[in-house]
Design goal:
- Keywords: ATP-binding, Nucleotide-binding.
- Pfam families: PhoH (PF02562), PIN_4 (PF13638).
- This is PhoH family protein.
- This protein is about 35% helix and about 20% strand.
- It is α/β, with parallel strands linked by helices and about 475 residues long.
- It has two domains: about 25-170, Rossmann fold, CATH 3.40.50; about 245-460, P-loop containing nucleotide triphosphate hydrolases (Rossmann fold).
- The model is unreliable at about 5-20 and about 310-320 (pLDDT under 50).
């Protein structure tokens, strides 16, 4: 029997464990900045037995985020409520025990100037530098402790290290091996020809004929023998390998094996959660939208949403007009995909008119993601585009809103992050792919080949 190749692991040096043990034995105090709280409001509970502190400047900054419907506003409000409950009968300048077994203590740090290094004097008077001063002051007060500034702001970490202050990224929920992230499919060489013939003739075969170990749920395979090959899918419910045919979704045909896998997962009613990852031009959003329209009779509505991430970090308030006019530029890529599907048909055809009617009757809705939060999503085919710009908590929140007969699809490119404080390891799409794999309701596929144009492929490959 043939089996996929495995990547070898790199041996560790003998010095690494010793250093880790030394760090573990030393008592630590982690100082969190605002970016960590806005990323995860429960962050102060995730440092095991070590103590956690936040500068008073962080509370001041959170006050500016407490109003609004965005996820960062939710995170700010939840953290403020938690601190209010924790300090109901205590002073925040005292070390307060955190709730839970084997937890450390929590304290708010004042903006006291330091006797030696002063970040405000060195870098200028701004909130980030006051946060640095609070950590430096604590380092002077607690020389027997290891003080660690935790921030998702790379520049702030660099400034901290310039002042001889240990600084780290917030690691909870971060994927360590992005290069080895689950792809959703494998190629198996040297498969017996009779197995491929059986799949062609009977559409399924016993998975034990191909693989020694049980495969991941809803995993896809390209099976190859000397003269032929076939696309297959592991049906979790039937415990069988099934043939994958190149289906068509509302005029859109797959152009490669990975696109065929993606369409199979998107059109499969047994799979309720799908993620499609790939660089620009691989057809992620197009396939998801075409699949949703193909299944329009199975759902009351189709929602196509994306987070509003302004280019160059300019807020939508910079644009003229009402809210609809401000948001249209951010939704335009989604309309482009809809127009592409429409253009597969003539303007006088029934299919062209159906798409127009779906938009007019709000059967198909293209909207910013912020307008979806808080709603109960029942009988909806829900597509979330640019999911790499979401935090893990945002992805969890969206999925938790799913009601009966709802399918949720996340599309994006984990290497094209447009949001500050997120990267390929900490964004919500990477987190979903890593955590949801091997679940019977979930399928993932990574699209590798760009199909937009030769010119677009040139940009992805060379620039």
């Amino acid at each position: 029997m043939a089996k996929p190749s495995k990547n070898g692991s790199q041996p560790k040096t003998s010095k690494a464990p010793k250093k880790k043990n030394q760090d573990t034995n030393q008592k630590k105090i982690f100082v969190l900045d605002t970016s960590v709280i806005l990323y995860d409001h429960s962050a102060i509970q995730n440092f095991q037995e070590h103590d956690v502190a936040i500068p008073i400047t962080v509370l001041e900054e959170l006050d500016n985020f407490k109003k609004g419907n965005d996820i960062k506003n939710f995170e700010a409000r939840e953290f403020i409520r938690f601190i209010d409950k924790l300090s109901a009968e205590h002073k925040l300048q005292d070390w307060l025990p955190l709730n839970g077994k084997n937890k450390g203590y929590f304290r708010v740090l004042m903006n006291d100037s330091t006797e030696m290094l002063d970040a405000v004097q060195i870098f200028g008077d701004k909130n980030d530098h006051r946060i640095l001063n609070s950590a430096l002051k604590l380092q002077q007060e607690k020389p027997d402790h290891k003080i660690v500034l935790v921030t998702k702001d790379i520049n702030l970490r660099l400034k901290a290290r310039a002042l001889n202050l240990v600084a780290e990224d917030y690691e909870t929920g971060k994927i360590q091996d992005v290069a080895g992230l689950y792809t959703g499919n494998d190629t198996i060489e040297d498969v017996a020809p009779n197995i491929i013939n059986e799949l062609y003739e009977k559409s399924q075969c016993d998975v034990g004929q191909v693989l020694k170990a049980p495969p991941a749920d809803n995993h896809f395979y390209i099976l190859k023998s000397f003269k032929s090959s076939i696309l297959s899918f592991y049906n979790t419910a039937e415990k069988q390998l099934e043939r994958v045919d190149k289906l068509t979704a509302f005029g859109i045909k797959p152009r490669n094996a990975e696109q065929a896998f993606a369409l199979h997962a998107l059109l499969n009613p047994q799979i309720k959660l799908v993620s499609v990852q790939g660089v620009a031009g691989t057809g992620k959003t197009l396939l998801a939208l075409a699949s949703a329209i193909e299944q329009r009779r199975e759902y009351k509505q189709i929602y196509l949403a994306r987070p509003v991430v302004p280019l160059s970090n300019k807020d939508i308030g910079y644009l003229p007009g009402d809210i609809k006019s401000k948001l249209n530029p951010y939704m335009e890529p989604l309309w482009d995909n809809l127009k592409y599907i429409q253009n597969q048909f003539s303007e006088t055809s029934k299919e062209y008119q159906k798409l127009r009617d779906m938009v007019d009757l709000e059967k198909l809705v293209i909207t910013p993601l912020a307008y979806i939060r808080g709603r109960s999503l029942s009988n909806i085919f829900f597509i979330v585009d640019e999911a790499q710009n979401l935090t893990p908590h945002e992805v969890k929140t969206i999925i938790s809103r799913a009601g009966e007969n709802t399918k949720i699809v996340f599309t994006g490119d984990i290497y094209q992050i447009d949001t500050p404080y997120l990267d390929s390891q900490s964004n919500g799409l990477s987190y979903l792919i890593d955590r949801a794999r091997n679940h019977p309701l979930y399928a993932h596929i990574t699209l590798l080949k760009g199909e937009r144009s030769e010119l677009a492929n040139l940009a992805n490959e060379l620039l």
